Every structure is written in structure tokens, then in C-alpha cells.
């Protein structure tokens, strides 16, 4: 019997495992991963942008309101969530349980770059709105080509001097190798005593009357002595990326009814030419095309992966029926259920612009795709760049309470069973950057009594969590419940 089973070897699972290992060192943990190593799907550095989403440069987090004002609440929330992740990583590094943060995190300014008078006006208003919040007080704005050239020369070289342009810059941005971080956290879990089963694909989840779960996994090793592994656990987390929807459906929890998945694939252009890379040290986000999903916002990024610096541009959106990069073309069809067909049909009907955008993207020629890069970098030469396939994303489709039909969501969503014994994460961006905050939400909802006893320790690890609030709740707690045991 395990206390916690983690399904999927990505950043979410290992983050939850690390939190539990810190908070309840005696709880037993097992992790299942279907591939031959952790961090090979969305957490792999070449399958994501590694932006370290802090809402410093992503325009979709600061929408313009009908009255012309700029809403910044979502940007502030995501910024705070990322900084909570940073605090947890820093804490683990100081404790020596993971290597120093500079092994997976590189200082990289975050910029937003726009073209055209209307977009320049919007960016200026966004800058003025964000600067009112202390988290964004160091943000810089310029519509002077010479200043922008000093920030990122490749944006300005050979550009039409009469074109209105503007940019913002946050000098304290980062590039995060979430693959390396995932490996660090997995190694910590293994050193802590967790069992990590690679090449084990979970095929079944069945709950017993006492609330525990039996997890059935297939051992995919060619020489496996036993093809099927069955274990029991008191709690299950499904952090399997695109596969999470299928697994939660197999678990049969009523909370997953009405949920569907909309898969979107992507392609990036990459160069590692030293003379080009040396001229660009920033992550530069632009403005998404009308009707395109937020994850398809074009950006020209500095990436540092395993000591090598490259530039990455994209993503070019595409469509595949796979839910994982190394998944099956049947994934979309096998996710269909009577409870989610209406949801998915309604989303298809109400998002025709997105469908048209994806069809257009799939049919674009290489020349047309490269033209998008030249809008960012006029001097780009096709001979210097190569195409790479990015990770697969599955956006959430769901019904809203009291409504018929369905809506398409572009964020992440935590789906938890009412009894708190199983939970899973659906969706994509901002994803990895907010892993710690998301897993704290899971701990709060799945272990409400234990969470009250953990709050003071959590505040020590992450000062953003108020120690005063934790002490108040602990004082109240001591009058209401007995000592919490070390097992579920």
C-alpha cells in the first residue's frame, strides 16, 4: 500500500512529490511514467518555450476592456504564482536536495514587441496599467527604434524606419529548462525513497469501498518478468499531460463528466548559429493573430538547454488527433463519451475562427511560415534555421454549471474527486511555471485537515504564504482536531 501514486513523469507530478516529501517525509510515494525517462513530453525543454511565465511579456494575460482600459488582474496572479515557484526552487536548492538553480534557470529579459499605430497605443496603455502594481514597477517601455535596438538588435536591423513600433522590457525575466528541473526533482524523490517505475503505462484505476485505489500498469520493458503490475494507494494524482483526460475517465469519477480535450500541435524554428545567437538575449513576445489560440502567440526566444544557447521562433500551430507527442492518432476519438459529445460539438460550432486558423496554419508553405519570422527579424536567412516539432497540447473543453453546451479554456484546470482521493490536471499554458501554486491548490483541496498543519512549514519554504495567517489557522485548528497521524 502506497500513500501517494503519481501518474506521469512531468513537472507537475514531481513538484507534488517534492512538496509531499518535504511536508510528510514518512509517506510512501510511487511514480509511473510510460516512456523510458521523465520529462520527455511537455516538460522537455524543446517541447515548451521555457519562458518562466511571469506575465511580463504575454499580451493575452492583459486583455483590453470595452472601455479601453487594460485588465491586469490575471497578469498579477500569474506573476505571483511564478514567484512562488521560484521561492520553492530556491528553498530546495538551499537545503541541498536539488542542485543550484542556475543549473536550470538562466537570467533572460522578457520583452513584448508590437508593430502598427494601434498596437503601439495598446502596448503603451498596458505598460501604464502594469506599472501601477509593485510587481511590474521595473517594466520599461520605448517606441524609439534606437532604444529597442539596444535591447534586441535583431528586431530592428533592416526594418522600415517609418513603421510604428514599440516594446516593453522586464530585465529580471528568466529562461527555465523545465526538463532539467524535472530530472532534479525526480532524483530527489528517488533519493528520498520514492519508487519510480519507467516504461510503465497505467491502464486501469479502480476505487474500493474504503476509498483506496488499485492502479493497474503495464510494464513495457521487452524483458519484463511480469507484464502487469497492480498496487494500491490512498491517493492518486494524474499528471500525465494529454493522457490525463483518458485516465480520469477510466477512474469513473463523476467530476470528469462533460470534459473533453482539443489537441493542438506546434512547430518551432531553431538556430544555434553563434553569430546570430550572440545578437539576441531576450524572450520577445508579439501579438497573436485574430482567431488564434493564446498558445500560438509568436515569440523569438533565447533558450539555454544543457549549456548550449539557441534561438527559438514560433510556434506555428497545427492539428493532430494525438493527445501526446508520442501518443496515438486515436486519442481524440477514444476520449469521446456520451457526457462530453455535446460539449465538444458546441465548442466546434462556437470556435469556427479557431478551426479556420488551424486549417490555415496546417496548409501554410515553408516560405509563408518563414515570412512570420522575418516580421520579427527582418534579416533572417532560411539557411540558418531548422524546423523542430514542439510538444502536444490538449486544451480543456467543458460545460459550465447550469449551462448547456460547452466552452474552450486555454488555461490549466485541476479536477478533483469529491472525496479527495484522486485528482488530475488538464490543459496547458501557463502550466509548468505555476506548478507549485497549482499543486498547493491540490494539497488544499485533497488534504484540507493536513494542509492546516502544513501551513507554517509552507510559509517557511515560500514566504509569499503568510506566516501570520498560518499561525492563526493553526491556533484555531488545535482546538478542533486531534494530532494528525503520519499516514492517510
UniProtKB/TrEMBL annotation:
Its cofactor is FAD. Keywords: FAD, Flavoprotein, Oxidoreductase, Tricarboxylic acid cycle. One of its GO terms (biological process) is tricarboxylic acid cycle. Pfam families: Mqo. GO terms for molecular function: (S)-2-hydroxyglutarate dehydrogenase activity; L-malate dehydrogenase (quinone) activity. Pathway: Carbohydrate metabolism; tricarboxylic acid cycle; oxaloacetate from (S)-malate (quinone route): step 1/1. The keyword Flavoprotein applies. It catalyses: (S)-malate + a quinone = a quinol + oxaloacetate. Its EC number is 1.1.5.4. InterPro entries: FAD/NAD-bd_sf (IPR036188), MQO (IPR006231). PANTHER family: L-2-HYDROXYGLUTARATE DEHYDROGENASE, MITOCHONDRIAL. Belongs to the MQO family. This is Probable malate:quinone oxidoreductase. The lineage of its organism: Bacteria, Bacillati, Actinomycetota, Actinomycetes, Micrococcales. The gene is mqo.
